[in-house]
Every structure is written in C-alpha cells, then in structure tokens.
C-alpha cells in the first residue's frame, strides 16, 4: 500500500512539473497526432557516449542520435547507413566502405571517413576506458593497440580520403557488417570531444550526432527530448517530429502514466499486473537474446572456491523465479540463451544444459560441506547488490530465501543504476545483479564477455584455456570447428561456475496500437526512428 501511495505521488509530481505531455488521454492523443512519441525509456543514463555506454536503455537513445556505416531497417535487416556501399576482398579480410556524400552531422558539417577512424581508435585507446573496446579487436592490431603492444597507426582502420574507409581484420568475421551498426562502431566528432571532454555527451548543445534525431533537451532524471534531424541524409523517411523519452524506473508510476494516457509506451511494468494486462491485450512480449545472471566476485572469499559458487547456483530454483516474473521468461540452463544460431540448429540445444531448472539442495549442501561450511556454519554473511527495480528486488528476495535453506544469511542492497554499474566495474561487491543482451546473433557476443581482456567481465574470473578457445573461434574459417570451440568455451565457463545464470530474458513492454512501423530487435533495441502515429 505504501509503495502505491509513493508511486501516485511521483506521478502527480511528474504531471505538475510537466514531465508528461498533457493532463489527460485526449491531450495525449492530440500530441500523438502531431507525430510526437512519448516513451518511458528507463533510468537516467550513465553514459551517452557510444564508446563508453554498455547499458541498453542508454543505447536506445544513442541509436536514434547516431548512425554507423550500416543501420537496421524496420524488418531487422542490416542495410546501408553512412556508407552507401562497400566491397569485401576475396579473403574476407579487407572491407572498403564508401561514405555518402550527403552524410551530415546534426550541425550541418559533413560526416567523413576520418570521423570513423578517429572514433574506432578512440574506443580502442585504453585511456578512453571503453568497456566495449574488445568489440573492436576483430580489427587488425586492435587488441595489440589496446594492450600497448602497437601504435594507433598500426590499427587496421584507415581513412583513404574523406569518403573512403578501409578496414583490415585479423581474421574473416562473418558478422562484421552487422557489427558496424552497433553503437561502439558509431562515429564521433573529434573537435567536439577534444574541446569539451567528458561533458560533450551531457549537454544538448554539444551532443552532436549524425542520426535521424538530435537531442534538444535533457532534464536530468526526468526526460530527454529528441527532435527530427533535418540534416540527416534520409530525413525524408523519418515521420516522427519528436521523441520524448521519460527517465523513470518506478514501475508503478510507469503503468499509471500509460493507463492515464500520458505516454504512448513504457518499459518497466509491475510484475503483478502482467497477467491482467496480458488478458486485456495491452501487454506486448517480444523475444530477446539475453540472459539475467548474478556476478560473483571469484577472487573474494568464500567465492574463490568453485564448490561454493556451484552450491549457491544449485540452490536456486529457476522455475520458481520465472513464475514470479510472469513474462514468459525461461530458466537459464547455460549462459547462451535460446534463439542463438548454432551449427545447424539452436546453440543452446547443441551445447546442452549445465544447470537444473529446479533447485538441487542435496547436492548444494554436500558441496558446501566439502568447502568447509556444513549447513552454512562459519559461512560469512554476504550481500547481493542490485539496481532499484521491483523485478530485481523480487528475484533477490527469492534467492535470499533459497540461500537461507543452506544456512547462509544474505543482505540485500538496492542502489541507483549508475552506482551499480560503477561498483561492478570496480569489482566492489560480493554478489551483483547483471544481465547481458547480445550485440548480434552469434554465441560469440555472449562468450567473449568473459575473456580476461573483456572490459565487461566483472567477475575477477579468468581462464587461459577459455581465452584460447575464444581466440581460436574468432580466427578459424571453418564454421563447424568455430562453433565447437565456443561450445567447449561455454562448458569451461559453466563447469567453473564463474557466474550464476538465472533466466533468459523476454522484453515486456506497453505500446499503443496506433504506433506503427517500428522494430524491436531481439537484441533489445527500440528502432522507433521509422515509426509513425496512425489514427
């Protein structure tokens, strides 16, 4: 009851301060008729810099303000973006991209091949601190430059002139073209970044992009306003005149805003309301290539003992957790989710299952006793940290009770999204909520996450054999052999229990039926740039 009162207060405050457009459904409809889309996007973003961001909600802003060499169309296909065409050498190692002559930044300056060369090398430069730098290791000498073993001039990306970009890879990469529409591969402006430093991404005046929209307002912790970028090369195909992206992680307030007609769509919905919304036909559930899991700090006792990690993983009843969430999620029996391509069928089916969908308390207690903690005796109290969200809280509370059956006391600590990201990155935790949605449809987007050189590996776990298998998979041309390397790599990850997978994601959201021609990717991106309001 108290939580619902708080949510109501938040909604009223939003209305008074003008966060939501209009005061009733009629006014919302009027706004919609003017091709203005209002959408609750998620929490306040930590980064809107394409090189630094790792969060999905922030990426949904970035993909509307920037564009890569390629883009994703309304059917999910990779199509020409900033590059009007490209060629690939017979050995699959050299790509030559030709930048559109009418490609412009939002301030009217031309987008050039030099912008891409600068952006990619900036992301690879260890001084930048990009957690996604490894996503560019496919490029010749990219990893060596990142590790200080090569110079920037050695990296295989070179602007031959203003409109021609040549890229040389370490090995043939079948999904490289798809990678070029991922945010880490987006261009950024050297003059802007060098003049304003880290602040360039926080002010609409300096947040210069090359995509279909430009940022015109950012009321921090409230909303971000994007308006159509008339300098975009394909501006004529963009129907929406404005997108207002609300920044809210209060699920009850989100639902109330949607119900009151104040927004056209929302993410973050109270789980107890999902059955009703589903029955009423208001809820939308989209497939998502993603895994919800817990990081465990593998260098901190008692999690430096593999038996402890395995015991706590086995004590989790994943079927019960999925039932709590009500969004058609599936229990995670490995790390790579269903829907990812394997050799001839689904990778998850080919790799097999490593975790039971129901708890195995008997084996968990046995392992804990072998590790020196019979019935939890002398086991230190531990803390689970997670970002503030009703769903994360429910999962944490359920796991808290499941681990209590082992005699383990668990403290739960919720915090702002930005704080959780920082603590995970600094390895300042014992157990932390985490999640990963793929960057492309291939097992590699999940498995190279846990290499020793990955900036997104928050576990303090590393394994030389694992690294070797991932490197082999990235360099082999034989498709079946490549997949076998990845199957072997996942086996090491799961048998070492470096992480605790919990469930495979779906995307649960609300969106008015009058919003047409949008595409929600299985990778989690909301491609609303093609959307239009149809009454």
TrEMBL record:
Pfam hit, one: SBP_bac_5
Record domain Solute-binding protein family: where: 79-458
InterPro entries: Peptide/Ni-bd, SBP_5, SBP_5_CS, SBP_5_dom
UniProt topology in membrane: Lipid-anchor
Taxonomy, superkingdom: Bacteria
GO annotation (BP), single: peptide transport
Record localization: Cell membrane
GO cellular component: ATP-binding cassette (ABC) transporter complex; outer membrane-bounded periplasmic space
Keywords assigned: Signal, Transport
Major subcellular site: membrane
Keyword Iron: no
GO MF assignments: peptide transmembrane transporter activity
Entry's family note: Belongs to the bacterial solute-binding protein 5 family.
Name of this chain's protein: Extracellular solute-binding protein family 5
